[in-house]
Design a protein that fits this description.
381 residues, binds glycine, six-stranded mixed sheet, elongated, alpha/beta
Length: 381
């Protein structure tokens, strides 16, 4: 017999769980099809950097607004999730240091701190001596650093557990070990409309709203035509154990980033590899990261390596997420393709999808993220 819900979510990672919790908060009956800990799932593989500051020049203004809106939501959202789930989640709002390892990069970063939007990101150029005071473990070879004062970080694994637990505690029907294989679609006289999903185990969930939150596996859900153009982009990471709190802030260079945790772990990432679903990590990938990390923070070379792993970012052709209605099938909402920013964008994604699913306007402009930008437009008949 089919389960029934107002909304069914394909994917039980951080995005799926956050959306489920938000929808439940608006009074909907919600089911989540959660395949479980898939190897390479992005929610667990991420480092939890919360950085709306554009890592590359020229990123879309609409994306920067989306990212900043989400970061603004983060502290209260994490606190609410902790309370609802009873699971503590480490959230650190100490900013990020972009180290300048060459004079050329120092010139660029110094200049960046003088741009008109500097205050929005909390940008401040730190000369070598200030850097030594602020982060003594940073390489003495660094010429200085750009402090991005508003950046933060979160323990993404604890956060994902907390979001799932909060959703389940609120009454979300959490279908553990279930994967959505296809949409159930009906013709309603005006076109094609979602009627629910079919699960790999043979069951069905009937629902008028279907949320696609399956990360890099989203394209494999049958019935989406065009399929969302989401592909896996592998990222390798490692973790070392620090003596005490040797590194306090997120530290980044052009080749790597280092994210400290309160338990003394220092997460080091990440490669960006177009290798499909090829599992990792690889010796070459981890060696390159270890070398880059030692250039930024020399003591890392001698620390005990406690973990190495790889995950698949859900990449899209323009590196922007897919947020909003499917261009063809009414009732399908996309919350996928978050690429390098799925953790950061979880709260704003949940707010957007909860608004759209209940007939309200999205709380932030989402035109730039419309799934329709890649394909067919729904024909009203
Ligand atoms: N946002 C970090 C990464 O994609 O590696």
């Amino acid at each position: 017999m089919a389960e029934r819900a107002d909304a069914v979510i394909a994917g039980g990672g951080l995005i799926g769980a956050s959306v489920a919790w938000a929808l439940r908060g608006r009074g909907l009956d919600v089911a989540v099809a959660d395949p479980g800990a898939q190897s390479g799932a992005a929610s667990a593989a991420a480092a939890g950097m919360l950085s709306p500051f554009p890592e590359v020049a020229g990123s879309a203004p609409a994306f920067e607004l989306l990212a900043r809106t989400s970061l603004d939501r983060f502290p209260a959202w994490v606190a609410a999730l902790c309370e609802a789930s009873g699971i503590p989640v480490e959230f650190r709002a100490l900013g990020k240091l972009h180290l300048a390892l060459t004079e050329e990069s120092a010139g660029t970063l110094r200049q960046r701190a003088r741009q008109p939007d500097a205050a929005e990101y909390g940008l401040e150029w730190l000369e070598r001596e200030r850097l030594r005071e602020e982060e003594p473990a940073a390489s003495p070879a660094a010429c200085g650093a750009l402090l991005v004062g508003r950046d933060a970080s979160v323990d993404n694994r604890a956060l994902t557990r907390a979001a799932a637990a909060a959703a389940a505690a609120a009454g979300v029907n959490w279908l553990r070990g279930e994967r959505v294989v296809s949409l159930l679609i009906e013709e309603d006289g005006r076109g094609r409309r979602a009627a629910g999903v079919r699960l790999a185990g043979g069951g069905q969930v009937r629902a008028g709203v279907v949320v696609i939150a399956a990360g890099c596996w989203s394209a494999g859900i049958a019935g989406l035509d065009p399929a969302p153009p989401v592909r896996p982009v592998r990222g390798q990471m490692l973790a070392v154990q620090m003596p005490g709190a040797a590194v306090r802030r997120v530290v980044a260079t052009e080749s790597c980033y280092l994210v400290p945790r309160g338990d003394g772990r220092l997460l080091i990432g990440a490669t960006v590899e177009e290798v499909g679903f090829e599992p990792g990590p690889t010796p070459a990938g981890i060696a390159a990261l270890a070398t880059a990390a030692a250039e930024a923070v020399p003591l890392t070379a001698k620390l005990h390596m406690t973990e190495a792993w790889a995950g698949f970012r859900p990449g899209t052709p323009d590196a922007l997420p897919l947020l909003g209605p499917d261009p063809v099938v009414a009732g399908v909402l996309h919350a996928t393709g978050h690429y390098r920013n799925g953790i950061l964008l979880a709260p704003v994604t949940a707010d957007i999808i909860a608004a759209l699913a209940t007939g309200a306007a999205a709380p932030v402009a989402i035109d730039a993220f419309s799934p329709a930008r890649f394909g067919a437009v729904r024909e009203e008949r």
